[in-house]
Amino acid sequence: MIKLILLVLTTLIIASPATMAEAMKIETIPMNSRPVEDVIPVLRSLVVEGGTVTGINNKLIIKTTPSNLKQIKEVLAQIDHAPRRLIISVKQDVGGNVSTRESELSGRYGTGGVKIESHDSGRGGTIIQGQDSDGNVIRYRQLETQSPGQDRNVFRVQALEGNPAFINTGQSVPIPNQTAYVTGSGVVVQDGVEYQDVSSGFYVLPRLQGDNVTLLIAPHLTRISPNQTGIFDIQNVETTASGRLGEWIHIGGISQEYNNERKRNLIGTKERGQEHRNILVKVEELK
Question: What is the per-residue pLDDT across 15-32, written as a single tens digit (0 to 9) for each?
Answer without folding.
Answer: 444 344 447 899 999 988
